[in-house]
Amino acid sequence: MSARELTEWQAFNLYVEPFGGELLDMHFASLRMQNYAGKDKKTIKDFMLYDHRLLTPEQKEQERQREKRLQAHKQVSALRDFLASKVNEQKTASKS
Q: Is pTM, for the whole model, over 0.70?
């Protein structure tokens, strides 16, 4: 197998093949849904095994960076709240 054939196969498997797997997954999910005996109403998405979103490597990297930025903003906010509470404690202690 040449390098070109391997690259084409990898690209096909990464960007095209999940449609077949997603269809099969939907069939199994519908069977699981039919056999589910709970009272609450479930949808097919609740029974899907895999996330079949087709993201390019660039989109995956952007999503990862977006999650990291959100996590950093949460940490900064928590630290800011913590430091503000310490300043408020010092102010009330010095007034007493």
A: no
